[in-house]
C-alpha cells in the first residue's frame, strides 16, 4: 500500500530529526523531497469548522517532525543558498497547509520572514533556475497573508525593507523586459511566458503590500510609496510607478490622513519637513489626483491659495499643476475641484504676462484632453480673450494655442475663435503678424487635407485665412517685405504639397466668393510681382549665356542692375543680392538650365518634379540651397498654372460649376490668372472660345484676357474670326479694343489682308452710322496696329470726325447722360478725338501723315470758343476740352516737337479749370502718365495751378502728385547719373519752372502794368511760389533754381517779345522766394555754370541795343524793386499760413507726405556760383536795416507820365508810385533780404535782426542842409532812418540832376536813390576807398555772377544756353525818366509813417 504525502513528509522529518549533523548533500536531498511532497498536500476539504480544525491538527501532527528538524538543525539561519531556498519553500508550504493558524511559534517568525525577504530579493533574477520556486514562495505568502504576522511580531523594519525590495524587483523586471524586446528571437520565444509571469508577480507583490497597508499604514511606508510614485531619473520606471499608483488607489482610505497631513505640511511648513519629498509635493498631488482624487479634497484649497499668492513663480507652478490635473482625458477633476477650476480660468487674465502665457499652455492641454467636456467652452473663451491681450508675447502664445486647438478639433471649433485668430494677421506688432502667417497657413493646410479626404466640407471661415494673409501686402510698415513673404506662403505653405490641382481650385474659387476688392488688389500685386521677377530673370539668364560674346564691363554693369531688381523681390534684399553675385561667380550652367526649364514650364505637376530633382541634385548642404529653393519657387508656376486654367474652363464649359453663385467666382478667378499670366491659356483655346461665345455678361473681361493671351496661344484664326469681327462692329468699345488686339496677334502672316478687310467694313459701318462709338474705337485700334491699312481710309475718317466738330448741337437731342455727364454730340467729339489720336500713335512703324490739322482742332477745342467751325454744347463742353487736353498729353509722347507753345499753355491751363471734376480727372491722368514716364516732364507744371487753387481737396491731391513726381524724377535722375556719370539739368524736376514761368507770362490774367498791389501778384504767382516751396524741400535744387531764374532774366520771349518783361518779373519774384528761403544751402560744387532754355519759348537777347532799348530794359529791371518782390513773397506766405490755420480748425491734419512743404522764412546762407561758400558777414553786422514805406505823391501841375510796375504802359502823375533803384537782375547781395517795410505798409515783410557796424573816424554835427549835388560823390555818409532811429552808413556813388537825388550804396548791400535835401545825414571823415572795397567783397554772394545768354543753332527746336558772367559786369540801373519828386519818396514816406 502506497504511503500518503503526509506520511512521507512525517517519516522524512523523523529521519532528519534523528540525524545529528546531516551533511549538505543529504540535507538538500531530504529538503527537496520534502518540498516536492508538501506541494502535493492540500488543506482539508472539510467545510465544517470543527471538523476542519481537527483535520488541521492531524496534519500538524504529521508535519511536526519536519518543523522540529528545521528548528533543531537551525536551518532557518543556514547561509547556503540551496539549503536556504529549500527551507523557505518548505516553510511556505507548511504555512499554506496549516493556514490560517501560524505553524511556528512567534520567536521563530522573524527568522522565517528574513528567509522570505532573502528569496524575494532574488526575484529580480528572472533567468535563475530557482525563479519559479521563488515566485511560488511569493504567491504562497500572498495568498496566505503571511506578512500580516510581521505586524503581530513587530517586524516593521522588515516590512519597510520588504516594500523597498518589492519596488526594486518591479523596476528590474521592467528593465529586463525592455532588453528582451530588443532581441526578436527572445521576444518570440518568451513573450507569452514573460508577460504572464510578470503580471502574476506584480499581482502577488501588490496583494502583499496592500494587505499590510490596509492593516496598518505608517508614515515610513507612505514615504516609500510616494517616493516611488514620483520617482524620476534613471531608477524611475513605469512599473514601479504603476505599483505605487495601485497602492494609492487600493488603500485610499488608510493612506488619506497620512498623505493629506504630509501635503498640508508641505504647503504650510515646508521648511520644517525633513523628508526629501517636500520639493515634489506638486508631483505627488498630480499623481494622487490620477488615482484617488478624493484624497486631495482637503489639500486642494491650499493649491487654490497658491494660485492667488503674490509670488509669480509660485503662481506659475501651481497653475501648471492645476493644468496637468485638468488635462487628464475623461477625468472628472473639473467637477470634483470646482473652485480650483474657477481660479484656474481666472489666471488667464492674471496681471503677470508670464502667468497668462502659462495659463494658455495649460488651457491648451485641458482642451485637447477633453474637447467635448463641460469645461472646454470656458477654456476656449479664455483663449479667445487672450488673442486681444495688450502684451504681444501673450497674443503670440494665444495665437499658437488657438491654431493648435483648431487643428485638433477643426470640424467643431468655434467660428469666433477662427475669426479672432485670423485678425492677428493685422496685429500692430510685426512679430505677431509673422507668427500668425506661419501658423494659420499650417491650419489651412490641415483644413485642405481634411476636405480632400472627405472629413470636412468647405467652410467660409477657414477660407478667410488666405484672404487675410493677402491683406498683409497692405501693411504700411514693411509693404515690400510682406508681399514677398506672402508670395512664398501662397506658393509653398498654403496647400499640402501633394494636394491635387482640382482640390486647390475648389478652395481658390471659394476664396473668391468671400474676397473683396482689397484682397483682389493684393493678389494681383503678388502675381504682378511674380511676373515681373520671372521676366527680369529671363533677361538675366539670357545675359548669363551671352556674357562671353559681349564686353565684360558692360555685362557686369547690366548684371548688377538685374541683381538689384531681382533681389528686391526677396524678403532680405541685401542678402539676396550677395547670393546672386555668388551664383554668378559659380558659373554653374546646370543651375541656369534648371531655372530656365522652370520659367518655361506652364504646368504645376511638371514644375514640381523639375524643382524637386533640381534641389535634390544640388543637395541640402549646398551653400546656396535655401536661396535656390526660394529662387526655384519664384520661377515655377506654383501659385497658378495652366492646369488651374484648364480646370476652370472645363468646369465652366461642362456646366459642373452649375451652381449659379459659383459661376461668377470661377470667371473672376480665370480672368485674374489670365490677365497676369496669359500664356497659361495655351492648350485650352477651344474651351475658352466656347466660354466667349456663351457669356455675353463678361464678354468685356474675356476679350481683355484673350487680347493678352493671343500672342502665346496657337489657335486657328478662322475659329475666332467671326466672334472677333462681330465684337469690332457690334460689341462695346472695350470689346472692340481687345478684339482688334486679338486679331492682330492671331492673324499671323495674313494680318495685313485681314486688317485691310476689317478697315473697309469699319469705314462702311461708320459712314452708315451704325454703332458709331464702337466703330470709332475699332478704327482707332486698327490705326495703332496697322498704319498702312488705316492710311488708306484716313481721309474718310478724319473728314467724318472734323464734320462732327462743326455740327451744331441739336436742340431736341437727349439730355446729358448722368453717368458720363456728356450729351451724344460731345460723346461723338470725344470718340472722334480718341480715334485720331490713337491712330497717330501706332505701336509699330511711323505715321507719315501730318497731324497739324488735328493739333489745330485740339487747340481750338481747348480755347472753349465756338469759332472756326468748332461747336460744343454749353453744358458738356468741359468734357470735350478734357478729352482734348488728354489727347495733347498722349500725343506728346511722339509729337511733342509739333506741339506749339500756345497749345501747351492751353493744355496746362486745364489744371485750373473752373470745373473741379474736370481738373481732378485731368490731373489724375497727368500724374499716371508722368509716373510711367509716358510724356515729357514739362507737363508736370500743371499741378502748380491746383496746388495754389481754392479747392482744398485738389490742393492735397496736387501736392501728393507733385511730390510723387519729384521723388520719382529725382530718383531716376540719380540712377542715370550713377550709370552715365552725368546728369542732364533738363531732366531735373526743377526744370519745370522754365515752362511754368512762360505759361504764367502768357496768362491773360497777368496783373496789369499799373498794378502795384502785392496781394494781386501773390495770388497770381501762387502756382510759381507753391512749386518753389515744394522744390526747395530738396537743397540740391537750390543752385539749379538760381541758374534757371537768372537765365530767364537774361533771355527774351521767343513767342511774343512784348511778354519779356513779364518773364523777368516772374523770374525776379521767384528769385526773391528762393533768396528768402531758409532751405537755401551753401553753394555745392555741382552748381551749374550754364543753363539750357527751350528755344521754342525763349530766345537770346541781342548782343547790342540802342539807347532807347537800354532805357526800356533798365526801366523794366527797376520796375519791380526788391522790397516789392519780398512783399509779394511774404504776402503769399501769409495767405498760406492763414489758410492753413483756418483749415486746421475745421479739418483734420493732412498726411505729412502730402504737406512736406518748407516754410520760406528765416535767415539765408549766401552762396557763390564759383563753388566757394561763405557765410554772409552782413547777416551778423547789419541787424538794423533802413525801413522804407511807399507814399504816393499828389501832383496837379504836370501831366508827365512815368513807367510803372508793368514796364509797358504809362500812368498819370496822380497815381504815380515811387520806385526804388536796385541792381538789375543780380545784385551783389542777391541772397540777402535787402530791406524790410514799415509795419504800417501793406504786406510788410519781416525785418532781419542784424546789427550795424560802428563807423570809424570823426563825425560832423547832424545837419539838414541843402543838396550838395555832385560835390559829395565818392564820400562816405551816414543817414538817419526814422523807422528805427539809427544811422546807416554808405557811399555816394552818383547824382541824378533831373530827380535831384543821389545814388547811395549802403554797407549792408542796399542801393537807393535818395533826395538828401529832405534827409538827416552827415559826412564821415575820410573813410578810404580801400575799406569800401573790403566791405563790398564781404557782401559778395551767390548772385555775384550774372547769367549771360549764348546761342546754339540747331535744325529743330533746341534749348538756348545761358552762362553766368563774371562779377562786376552788371552795373546799377537808374530811373532817369521820372519826376524830381520821385527822389523825395523815401523821406516823405518815412515822415508819414
UniProtKB/TrEMBL annotation:
Keyword check for Ribosomal protein: no
Q: Where is this region: Disordered?
A: 1231-1267, 1336-1393
Q: Name one GO biological process term.
A: DNA repair
Where composition is biased (Polar residues), the residues are 1244-1264
The main location class comes to nucleus
Q: What is any Pfam family matched here?
A: PDS5
Q: Where in the cell is it found?
A: Nucleus
- UniProt keyword Lipoprotein, yes or no: no
Per UniProt, the keywords (alphabetical) are: Cell cycle, Cell division, DNA damage, DNA repair, Mitosis, Nucleus
The superkingdom of the source organism is Eukaryota
GO CC annotation terms, alphabetical? chromatin; nucleus
Its protein name is: Sister chromatid cohesion protein PDS5 homolog B isoform X1
- Recorded source organism is Raphanus sativus (Radish)
**Lineage summary:** Eukaryota, Viridiplantae, Streptophyta, Embryophyta, Tracheophyta
Amino acid at each position: 500500500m502506497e504511503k500518503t504525502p503526509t506520511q512521507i513528509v512525517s517519516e522524512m522529518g523523523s529521519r532528519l530529526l534523528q540525524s545529528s549533523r546531516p551533511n549538505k548533500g543529504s540535507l538538500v536531498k531530504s529538503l527537496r523531497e520534502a518540498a516536492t511532497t508538501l506541494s502535493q498536500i492540500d488543506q482539508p476539504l472539510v467545510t465544517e469548522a470543527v471538523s476542519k480544525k481537527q483535520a488541521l491538527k492531524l496534519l500538524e501532527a504529521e508535519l511536526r517532525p519536519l518543523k522540529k528538524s528545521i528548528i533543531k538543525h537551525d536551518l532557518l539561519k543556514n547561509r547556503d543558498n540551496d539549503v536556504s531556498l529549500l527551507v523557505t519553500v518548505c516553510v511556505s508550504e507548511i504555512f499554506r497547509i496549516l493556514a490560517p493558524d501560524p505553524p511556528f511559534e512567534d520567536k521563530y517568525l522573524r527568522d522565517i520572514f528574513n528567509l522570505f525577504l532573502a528569496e524575494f530579493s532574488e526575484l529580480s533574477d528572472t533567468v535563475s533556475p530557482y525563479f519559479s520556486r521563488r515566485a511560488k514562495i511569493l504567491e504562497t505568502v500572498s495568498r496566505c497573508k503571511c506578512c500580516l504576522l510581521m505586524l503581530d511580531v513587530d517586524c516593521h523594519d522588515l516590512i519597510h525593507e520588504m516594500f523597498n525590495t518589492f519596488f526594486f524587483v518591479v523596476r528590474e523586471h521592467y528593465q529586463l523586459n525592455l532588453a528582451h524586446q530588443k532581441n526578436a528571437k527572445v521576444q518570440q520565444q518568451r513573450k507569452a511566458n514573460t508577460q504572464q509571469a510578470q503580471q502574476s508577480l506584480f499581482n502577488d507583490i501588490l496583494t502583499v503590500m496592500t494587505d499590510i497597508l490596509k492593516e496598518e499604514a505608517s508614515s515610513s511606508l507612505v514615504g516609500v510609496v510616494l517616493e516611488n510614485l514620483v520617482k524620476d531619473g534613471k531608477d524611475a520606471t513605469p512599473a514601479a510607478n504603476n505599483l505605487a499608483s495601485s497602492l494609492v488607489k487600493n488603500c485610499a482610505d488608510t493612506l488619506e490622513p497620512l498623505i493629506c497631513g504630509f501635503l498640508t505640511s508641505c504647503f504650510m511648513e515646508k521648511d520644517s519637513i525633513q523628508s526629501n519629498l517636500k520639493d515634489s509635493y506638486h508631483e505627488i498631488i498630480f499623481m494622487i489626483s490620477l488615482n484617488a482624487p478624493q484624497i486631495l479634497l482637503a489639500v486642494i484649497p491650499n493649491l487654490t491659495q497658491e494660485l492667488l499668492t503674490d509670488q509669480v513663480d509660485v503662481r506659475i507652478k501651481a497653475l501648471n499643476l492645476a493644468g496637468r490635473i485638468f488635462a487628464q482625458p475623461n477625468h472628472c477633476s473639473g467637477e470634483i475641484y470646482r473652485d480650483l477650476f474657477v481660479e484656474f480660468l481666472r489666471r488667464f487674465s492674471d496681471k503677470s504676462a508670464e502667468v497668462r502665457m502659462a495659463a494658455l499652455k495649460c488651457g491648451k492641454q485641458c482642451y485637447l484632453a477633453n474637447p467635448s467636456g463641460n469645461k472646454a467652452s470656458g477654456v476656449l473663451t479664455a483663449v479667445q480673450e487672450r488673442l486681444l491681450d495688450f502684451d504681444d508675447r501673450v497674443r503670440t502664445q494665444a495665437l499658437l494655442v488657438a491654431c493648435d486647438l483648431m487643428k485638433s478639433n477643426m470640424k467643431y471649433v468655434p467660428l469666433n475663435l477662427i475669426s479672432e485668430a485670423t485678425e492677428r494677421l493685422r496685429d500692430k506688432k510685426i512679430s505677431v503678424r509673422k507668427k500668425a502667417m506661419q501658423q494659420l497657413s499650417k491650419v489651412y493646410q490641415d483644413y485642405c487635407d481634411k476636405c480632400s479626404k472627405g472629413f470636412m466640407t468647405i467652410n467660409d471661415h477657414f477660407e478667410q485665412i488666405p484672404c487675410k494673409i493677402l491683406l498683409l501686402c497692405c501693411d504700411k510698415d514693411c509693404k515690400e517685405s510682406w508681399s514677398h513673404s506672402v508670395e512664398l506662403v501662397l506658393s509653398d505653405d498654403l496647400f499640402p504639397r501633394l494636394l491635387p490641382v482640382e482640390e486647390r481650385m475648389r478652395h481658390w474659387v471659394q476664396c473668391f466668393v468671400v474676397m473683396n476688392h482689397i484682397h483682389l488688389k493684393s493678389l494681383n500685386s503678388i502675381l504682378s510681382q511674380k511676373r515681373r521677377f520671372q521676366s527680369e530673370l529671363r533677361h538675366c539668364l539670357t545675359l548669363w549665356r551671352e556674357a562671353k560674346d559681349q564686353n565684360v564691363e558692360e555685362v557686369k554693369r547690366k548684371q548688377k542692375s538685374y541683381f538689384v531688381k531681382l533681389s528686391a523681390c526677396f524678403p532680405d534684399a541685401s542678402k539676396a543680392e550677395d547670393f546672386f553675385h555668388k551664383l554668378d561667380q559659380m558659373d554653374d550652367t546646370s543651375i541656369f538650365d534648371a531655372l530656365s526649364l522652370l520659367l518655361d514650364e506652364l504646368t504645376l505637376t511638371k514644375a514640381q518634379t523639375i524643382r524637386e530633382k533640381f534641389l535634390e541634385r544640388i543637395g541640402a548642404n549646398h551653400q546656396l540651397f535655401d536661396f535656390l529653393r526660394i529662387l526655384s519657387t519664384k520661377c515655377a508656376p506654383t501659385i497658378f498654372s495652366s492646369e488651374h486654367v484648364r480646370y476652370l474652363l472645363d468646369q465652366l464649359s461642362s456646366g459642373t460649376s452649375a451652381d449659379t453663385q459659383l459661376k461668377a467666382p470661377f470667371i473672376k478667378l480665370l480672368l485674374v490668372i489670365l490677365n497676369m499670366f496669359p500664356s497659361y491659356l495655351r492648350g485650352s483655346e477651344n474651351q475658352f472660345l466656347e466660354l466667349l461665345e456663351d457669356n455675353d455678361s463678361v464678354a468685356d473681361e474675356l476679350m481683355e484676357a484673350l487680347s493678352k493671351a493671343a500672342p502665346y496661344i496657337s489657335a486657328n484664326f478662322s475659329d475666332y474670326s467671326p466672334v472677333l469681327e462681330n465684337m469690332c462692329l457690334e460689341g462695346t468699345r472695350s470689346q472692340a479694343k481687345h478684339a482688334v488686339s486679338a486679331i492682330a496677334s492671331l492673324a499671323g502672316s495674313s494680318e495685313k489682308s485681314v486688317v485691310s478687310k476689317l478697315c473697309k467694313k469699319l469705314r462702311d459701318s461708320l459712314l452708315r452710322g451704325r454703332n458709331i462709338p464702337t466703330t470709332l474705337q475699332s478704327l482707332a485700334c486698327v490705326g495703332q496696329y496697322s498704319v498702312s491699312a488705316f492710311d488708306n481710309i484716313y481721309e474718310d475718317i478724319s473728314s467724318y470726325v472734323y464734320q462732327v466738330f462743326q455740327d451744331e448741337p441739336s436742340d431736341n437731342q437727349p439730355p446729358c447722360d448722368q453717368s458720363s455727364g456728356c450729351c451724344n454730340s460731345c460723346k461723338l467729339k470725344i470718340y472722334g478725338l480718341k480715334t485720331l489720336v490713337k491712330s497717330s500713335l501706332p505701336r509699330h512703324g511711323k505715321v507719315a501723315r501730318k497731324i497739324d490739322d488735328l493739333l489745330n482742332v485740339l487747340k481750338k477745342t481747348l480755347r472753349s470758343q465756338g469759332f472756326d467751325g468748332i461747336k460744343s454744347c454749353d453744358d458738356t463742353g468741359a468734357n470735350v476740352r478734357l478729352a482734348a487736353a488728354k489727347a495733347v498729353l498722349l500725343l506728346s509722347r511722339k509729337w511733342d516737337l509739333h506741339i506749339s507753345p500756345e497749345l501747351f499753355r492751353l493744355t496746362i491751363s486745364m489744371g485750373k479749370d473752373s470745373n473741379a471734376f474736370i481738373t481732378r480727372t485731368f490731373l489724375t491722368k497727368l500724374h499716371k502718365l508722368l509716373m510711367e514716364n509716358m510724356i515729357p516732364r514739362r507737363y508736370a507744371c500743371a499741378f502748380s495751378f491746383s496746388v495754389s487753387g481754392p479747392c482744398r481737396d485738389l490742393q492735397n491731391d496736387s501736392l501728393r502728385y507733385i511730390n510723387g513726381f519729384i521723388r520719382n524724377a529725382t530718383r531716376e535722375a540719380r540712377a542715370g547719373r550713377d550709370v552715365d556719370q552725368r546728369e542732364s539739368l533738363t531732366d531735373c524736376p526743377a526744370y519745370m519752372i522754365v515752362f511754368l514761368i512762360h505759361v504764367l507770362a502768357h496768362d491773360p490774367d497777368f496783373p496789369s502794368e499799373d498794378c502795384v498791389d502785392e496781394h494781386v501778384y501773390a495770388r497770381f504767382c501762387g502756382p510759381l511760389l507753391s512749386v518753389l516751396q515744394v522744390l526747395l524741400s530738396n537743397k540740391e535744387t537750390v543752385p539749379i533754381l538760381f541758374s534757371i531764374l537768372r537765365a530767364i532774366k537774361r533771355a527774351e520771349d521767343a513767342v511774343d517779345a512784348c511778354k519779356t518783361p513779364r518773364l523777368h518779373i516772374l523770374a525776379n519774384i521767384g528769385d526773391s522766394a528762393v533768396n528768402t528761403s531758409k532751405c537755401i544751402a551753401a553753394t555745392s560744387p555741382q552748381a551749374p555754370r550754364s543753363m539750357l532754355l527751350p528755344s521754342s519759348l525763349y530766345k537770346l537777347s541781342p548782343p547790342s541795343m540802342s539807347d532807347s532799348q537800354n532805357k526800356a530794359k533798365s526801366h523794366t529791371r527797376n520796375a519791380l524793386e526788391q522790397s516789392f518782390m519780398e512783399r509779394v513773397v511774404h504776402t503769399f506766405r501769409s495767405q498760406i499760413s492763414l489758410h492753413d490755420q483756418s483749415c486746421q480748425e475745421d479739418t483734420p491734419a493732412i498726411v505729412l507726405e502730402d504737406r512736406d512743404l518748407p516754410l520760406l522764412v528765416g535767415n539765408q546762407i549766401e552762396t557763390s556760383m564759383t563753388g566757394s561758400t561763405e557765410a554772409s558777414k552782413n547777416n551778423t553786422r547789419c541787424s538794423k536795416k533802413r525801413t522804407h514805406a511807399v507814399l504816393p505823391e499828389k501832383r496837379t501841375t504836370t501831366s508827365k507820365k512815368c513807367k510803372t510796375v508793368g514796364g509797358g504802359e504809362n500812368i498819370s502823375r496822380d497815381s504815380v508810385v515811387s520806385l526804388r533803384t536796385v541792381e538789375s537782375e543780380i545784385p551783389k547781395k542777391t541772397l540777402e533780404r535787402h530791406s524790410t517795410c514799415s509795419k504800417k505798409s501793406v504786406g510788410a515783410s519781416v525785418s532781419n535782426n542784424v546789427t550795424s557796424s560802428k563807423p570809424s573816424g570823426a563825425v560832423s554835427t547832424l545837419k539838414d542842409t541843402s543838396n550838395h549835388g555832385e560835390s559829395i560823390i565818392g564820400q562816405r555818409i551816414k543817414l538817419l532812418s526814422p523807422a528805427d532811429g539809427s544811422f546807416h552808413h554808405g557811399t555816394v556813388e552818383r547824382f541824378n540832376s533831373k530827380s535831384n537825388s543821389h545814388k547811395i550804396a549802403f554797407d549792408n548791400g542796399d542801393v537807393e536813390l535818395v533826395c538828401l535835401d529832405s534827409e538827416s545825414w552827415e559826412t564821415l571823415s575820410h573813410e578810404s576807398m580801400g575799406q569800401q572795397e573790403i566791405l563790398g567783397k564781404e557782401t559778395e554772394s551767390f548772385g555775384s555772377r550774372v547769367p549771360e545768354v549764348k546761342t546754339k543753332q540747331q535744325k529743330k527746336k533746341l534749348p538756348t544756353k545761358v552762362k553766368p558772367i563774371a562779377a562786376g559786369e552788371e552795373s546799377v540801373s537808374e530811373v532817369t525818366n521820372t519826376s524830381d519828386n520821385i527822389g523825395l519818396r523815401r523821406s516823405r514816406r518815412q515822415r508819414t509813417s
